[in-house]
Amino acid sequence: MSEEKKLKPAVLWFTGLSGSGKSTISEKVYPALKERGYRVEHLDGDAIRDIFPSTGFSKEERNAHIRRVGYIASRLQAHGVFVIGSFISPYQEARDFVRDLCEDFVEIYVSTPLEVCEERDVKGLYARARKGEIDNFTGISDPYEEPENPELEIDTTDITPGEGVRMVLEYLENRN
Ligand SMILES: Nc1ncnc2c1ncn2[C@@H]1O[C@H](COP(=O)(O)OS(=O)(=O)O)[C@@H](OP(=O)(O)O)[C@H]1O
Ligand SMILES: Nc1ncnc2c1ncn2[C@@H]1O[C@H](COP(=O)(O)OP(=O)(O)O)[C@@H](O)[C@H]1O
């Protein structure tokens, strides 16, 4: 990416199954934007849920959580901050709610298939969900609605995290 190109701060919203690669790519996009001089904030579902552990996984609770974090994202972006959001955010209506709040919303669908995510099983949650130890587990016993019109789709099955980051940066550069 050429250093001269000025990027317009946006809300980069990573959505996809657990283990699809949202956090891994987000964590690498963050320093890539920082070193180009942008103000950047990363809001991550797992990290925020650690602070607010009472947030559950019913449709209503997930959507309320997404609306709240989406509002924060929109306010940060309004003040010129690049916001990276990594949330499963399985429901189209909640993602659309956030899109409508944000001046510039980039929906990035991390479309790594369930079989690959389950094979990775980074946190051992899929195995537990298959055993019935976790209710409402996305992809196993809870729905994931694929984005209807994402700005970008990244399937991480056969690429490196660095290639995923490059796809995001190229998208941002080319749209300006
Ligand atoms: N039932 C169930 N379904 C899905 N995920 C579960 C569940 N229980 C716990 N976890 C862990 O919670 C993380 C997802 O949090 P999010 O805030 O991104 O979810 S959501 O947007 O509200 O759907 C998710 O993190 P990631 O693996 O990083 O996606 C899981 O580690
Ligand atoms: N191209 C890739 N992009 C992102 N993650 C990848 C990629 N290839 C393999 N992985 C691995 O897949 C896992 C993704 O986990 P994570 O980023 O926590 O997913 P999520 O945040 O969507 O739950 C990590 O173990 C990561 O090393």
Describe, in plain words, how this protein is organized in 3D.
The protein is of the alpha/beta class and 176 residues long. The protein has a single domain, classed as P-loop containing nucleotide triphosphate hydrolases (Rossmann fold). Helices cover 44% and strands 14% of the residues. The chain contains 7 helices and 5 strands. The protein has helices spanning 22-34, 45-51, 59-78, 92-101, 114-120, 125-130, 161-175, and strands at 11-15, 40-44, 82-86, 105-110, 152-154. The protein has a 5-stranded parallel sheet with strand order 2-3-1-4-5, with helices on both faces. α1 packs across α7 (161-175) and α3 packs parallel to α4. The radius of gyration is 16 Å and the shape is globular. It starts with 10 loop residues before the first strand and ends with a helix. The protein binds 3'-phosphate-adenosine-5'-phosphate sulfate and adenosine-5'-diphosphate. This is Adenylyl-sulfate kinase. One of its GO terms (molecular function) is sulfate adenylyltransferase (ATP) activity. Keywords: ATP-binding, Kinase, Nucleotide-binding, Phosphoprotein, Transferase.
